[in-house]
């Protein structure tokens, strides 16, 4: 598996640390209700198809990236810097 | 007064050679890690050009030479090699002296890439990883900086604490290349 780091280009999966679904970029606003926080902390979708995950290019450039991939076909569809996705 | 003698990280371990691939230690002199503050990239590059005549490198590239140059070193990071960090760089960036922090080797020979390919997942084919291209990657599980400095010459940097491990891993890689015989 190779991931397209927006800074380094296509690189081997072993250079990356996987941090799961990119939900961390959608942190509830201050004052959000318990339900929103419960969902944010505990609940994850388990899609068959397109999903967005956070990866850390740990032994590469050190960037956090959001990778879009297909859980059914295993195709890697693209990646953006997390700092840009979070804007 | 004590007479302190500087010691290079690899001075008792190198050089070594196998299959026509030579590994030797390199003294890069002063090493300064520079990390620009947010939105200060352009100002920093201008300051570097004014003080050193070298601009900030593009990702995965080196400007200047390994004698005196700027090596891309990761997201919003570059290493100044062989120069004093002059010119008010600290107005635009975090600046850290790391001169004693790295063990550095040069690997040279027609089969150097073949040996390195046993240790790193970076695509080292000559048309992909060209001269003056650089990568942060892993080398036998060590965090490393890898730069192609010539047709068959590569510069490898690892944390100084991994000096012995680096030589150990490179030794095994060279043995592996030797065991495969000539191409
Ligand atoms: Zn990267």
From TrEMBL, chain A:
Q: Which residues form a coiled coil?
A: none
A single GO molecular-function term is: sarcosine oxidase activity
| Single biological process term from Gene Ontology | tetrahydrofolate metabolic process
* InterPro entries xref list: SoxD, SoxD_sf
Name of the protein in its database record: Sarcosine oxidase subunit delta
What species does this protein belong to? Roseovarius atlanticus
From TrEMBL, chain B:
What the entry lists under Gene3D superfamilies is as follows:
Probable tRNA modification gtpase trme, domain 1
Q: Its domain of life? A: Bacteria
Q: What is this protein called?
A: Sarcosine oxidase subunit gamma
């Amino acid at each position: 598996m190779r991931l397209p780091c927006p800074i380094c280009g296509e690189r081997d999966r072993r250079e990356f640390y996987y941090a799961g679904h990119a939900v961390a970029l959608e942190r509830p606003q201050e004052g959000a209700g318990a339900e929103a926080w419960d969902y944010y902390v505990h609940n994850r979708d388990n899609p068959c198809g397109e999903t967005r995950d956070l990866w850390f290019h740990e032994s590469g450039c050190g960037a956090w990236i959001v990778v879009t991939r297909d859980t059914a076909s295993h195709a890697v569809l693209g990646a953006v810097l997390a700092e840009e996705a979070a804007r | 007064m004590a007479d302190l003698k500087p010691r290079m990280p690899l001075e008792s371990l190198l050089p070594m050679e196998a299959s026509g691939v030579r590994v030797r230690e390199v003294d890069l002199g002063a090493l300064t890690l520079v990390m620009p503050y947010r939105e200060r990239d352009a100002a920093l590059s201008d300051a570097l050009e004014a003080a050193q005549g070298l601009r900030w490198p593009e990702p995965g590239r080196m400007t200047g030479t390994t004698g005196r140059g700027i090596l891309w070193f990761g997201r919003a990071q570059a290493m100044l090699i062989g120069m004093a960090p002059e010119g008010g760089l600290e107005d635009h960036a975090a600046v850290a002296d790391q001169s004693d922090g790295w063990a550095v080797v040069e690997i040279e020979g027609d089969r150097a890439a073949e040996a390195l390919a046993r240790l790193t997942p970076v695509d080292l084919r000559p048309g992909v990883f060209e001269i003056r291209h650089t990568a942060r990657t892993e080398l036998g599980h060590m965090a490393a900086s890898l730069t192609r400095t010539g047709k068959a010459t590569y510069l490898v940097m690892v944390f100084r604490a991994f000096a012995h491990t680096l030589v150990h891993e490179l030794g095994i890689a060279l043995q592996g290349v030797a065991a495969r015989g000539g191409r």
